[in-house]
């Protein structure tokens, strides 16, 4: 039996202003110009420049022109289908992944373009070329083909109506694996290294000494790959019956110089990204002078012509349907422009308040640039100080940086947990990581320190730390376990 009932509930919804602010807050300085350009193109009521004062005569003249030409205004030239549903930021539907977006780089040929060019030089017929392009399309950004060849056979059958088999794909893939960069088209790391070593052997056939080293390196990867990845060198020497220690070391060195991700160096195509600081901080005799990067403070204004258009309507007697529609559009664009300008100003204010609080917490560091002077500080500390939500502070910290007298630092560099010392003081976990890194850098690489020994060494320096914390910090520093740090 169905029943109807009424329920009351409270829910929170973000206003357009809040949406503007949240999205603009996490945009880094390098992308802010692009974001503003998008808004300027989207909204004709928004302009660059300072606000200008106007005379009464200019206003009156515009009102007269507006009334005379109101019927000629064509709102369809500007109005989108969803404009009446309320103002939205550009890209509302897809703006959830701002953090993953990359800055545009200069146009250069991509890895796939370069591989296609090389495919054209191996004399394939039309059918083979289609199969080859399907294989190239399966190559991932790091240069590997991880899709199973049986699946590619099915892809060709369903998408291009081409009947083939794994054997034919294997033959064509072998030709692709001879392309540049060396190692491209491999299906796993072992195959990638073998392709590169085989290419080096071909290039050095006339040099017997180098060829011998490369041949030993090839055999190590081919026959002892698992032992090599675990650095069980004694097992490799025994398995391959290698008596020349110098030759073995050269072979291991040759392997470690290979490129495990050939797709990352396609023809020298490198994306150079420059870190543009959001803040400029200088030490003026102990006083910290903080300023925003000028690109964070653009001069924007509401279009006077649109403002006058709306003002003139209020004094106009011609309030027909078309005029109302036009002015409804004008008002909407004016509101959108004001909201955007307010969001930019709010962004500047929040950035400054957050950075000022960080400076207050980490004043000793900014005086000398000594990492040991960093205090334990978490997002909640700053959020409480500036009376804002932790998520707001997180958005600032994750995408902003500051230029200091000691270099440029991302804001998240200054956040760390606290570790107690033997004397009962709290020190930053970053300081402990620095000490850990120093211990590992200075260790005997033939007998690297285990986590237990690292724990004891840190405790001897006064840091009260558990072995599992040592392991966690080591992993955060991307340092492998002792066995994998061992060198010959």
List keywords for this structure.
two-stranded antiparallel sheet; 21 helices; alpha+beta; 51% helix
Q: How many independent structural domains? A: 4
Q: What spatial order of strands do you see in the largest sheet?
A: 3-2-5-6
Profile the largest sheet.
Answer: 4 strands, mixed
Task: List the uncertain runs.
Answer: 66-108, 265-273
Which value, in Å, is the CA radius of gyration?
32 Å
Total number of strands? 8
- Taken from the alpha-carbon principal axes, the silhouette is extended
Helical residues, percent: 40-55%
Distance between the termini: 79 Å
| Beta content | 5-15%
Topology pattern, helix = H, strand = E: HHEHHHHHHHHHHEEEHHHHHEEEEHHHH
The pLDDT mean sits at: 78
What is the number of helical segments per DSSP (H or I, 4+ residues)?
21
Structural class: alpha+beta
Assembly annotation: single chain
Structure description:
- The chain is an alpha+beta fold and 488 residues long.
- It has four domains: 180 residues, no CATH class; 62 residues, no CATH class; 70 residues, no CATH class; 65 residues, Orthogonal Bundle (Arc Repressor Mutant, subunit A).
- Helix content is 51%, strand content 7%.
- It contains 21 helices and eight strands.
- Strands 3-2-5-6 form a four-stranded mixed β-sheet.
- Strand 7 and strand 8 form a beta hairpin.
- The longest helix has 41 residues.
- The N and C termini lie far apart (79 Å).
- 24% of the residues are buried.
- About 11% of the residues have low confidence.
Summarize the entry for a quick read.
With 488 residues, the protein is an alpha+beta fold. Helix content is 51%, strand content 7%. The strands form 3 sheets. Strands 3-2-5-6 form a 4-stranded mixed β-sheet. A two-stranded antiparallel ribbon has the order 1-4. It has a two-stranded antiparallel ribbon with strand order 7-8.
């Amino acid at each position: 039996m169905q029943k109807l009932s009424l329920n009351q509930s409270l829910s929170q919804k973000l206003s357009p202003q809040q949406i503007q602010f949240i999205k603009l807050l996490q945009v880094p300085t390098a992308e802010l110009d692009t974001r503003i350009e998008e808004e300027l193109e989207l909204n004709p009521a928004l302009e660059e420049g300072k606000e200008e004062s106007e005379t009464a005569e200019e206003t009156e003249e515009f009102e007269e022109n507006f009334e005379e030409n109101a019927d000629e205004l064509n709102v369809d030239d500007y109005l989108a289908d969803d404009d009446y549903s309320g103002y939205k930021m550009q890209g509302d539907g897809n703006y959830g992944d701002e953090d993953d977006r990359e800055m545009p780089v200069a146009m250069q040929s991509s890895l796939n373009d370069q591989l296609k060019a090389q495919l054209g030089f191996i004399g394939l017929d039309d059918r083979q070329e289609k199969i080859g392009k399907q294989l190239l399309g399966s190559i991932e950004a790091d240069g590997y083909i991880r899709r199973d060849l049986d699946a590619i056979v099915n892809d060709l059958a369903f998408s291009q109506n081409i009947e083939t088999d794994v054997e034919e794909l294997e033959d064509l893939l072998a030709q692709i694996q001879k392309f540049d960069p060396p190692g491209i088209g491999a299906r796993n790391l072992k195959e990638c290294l073998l392709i590169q070593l085989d290419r080096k052997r071909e290039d050095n056939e006339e040099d017997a000494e180098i060829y011998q080293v490369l041949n030993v390196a090839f055999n190590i990867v081919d026959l002892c790959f698992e032992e090599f990845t675990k650095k069980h060198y004694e097992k490799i020497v025994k398995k391959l019956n290698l008596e020349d220690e110098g030759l073995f070391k050269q072979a291991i060195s040759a392997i470690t110089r290979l490129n495990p991700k050939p797709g990352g160096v396609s023809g020298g195509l490198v994306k150079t990204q420059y870190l543009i600081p959001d803040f400029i901080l200088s030490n003026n005799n102990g006083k910290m002078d903080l300023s925003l990067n000028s690109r964070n403070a653009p001069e924007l204004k509401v279009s006077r012509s649109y403002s006058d258009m709306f003002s003139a309507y209020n004094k106009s007697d011609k309030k027909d349907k078309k005029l109302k529609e036009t002015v409804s559009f004008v008002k909407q664009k004016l509101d959108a422009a004001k909201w955007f300008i307010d969001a930019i100003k709010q962004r500047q204010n929040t950035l400054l308040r957050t950075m000022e609080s960080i400076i207050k917490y980490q004043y000793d560091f900014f005086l000398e640039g000594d990492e040991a002077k960093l205090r334990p500080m978490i997002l909640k500390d700053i959020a409480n100080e500036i009376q804002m939500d932790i998520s707001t502070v997180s958005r600032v910290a994750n995408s902003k940086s500051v230029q200091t007298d000691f270099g440029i630092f991302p804001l998240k560099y200054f956040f760390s947990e606290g570790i107690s010392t033997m004397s009962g003081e709290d020190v930053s976990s970053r300081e402990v990581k620095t000490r850990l890194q120093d211990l590992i850098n200075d260790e005997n690489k033939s007998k690297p320190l285990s986590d237990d020994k690292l724990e004891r060494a840190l405790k001897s320096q006064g840091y009260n730390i558990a072995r599992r914390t040592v392991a966690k910090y080591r992993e955060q520093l991307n340092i492998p376990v002792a066995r994998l740090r061992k060198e010959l």
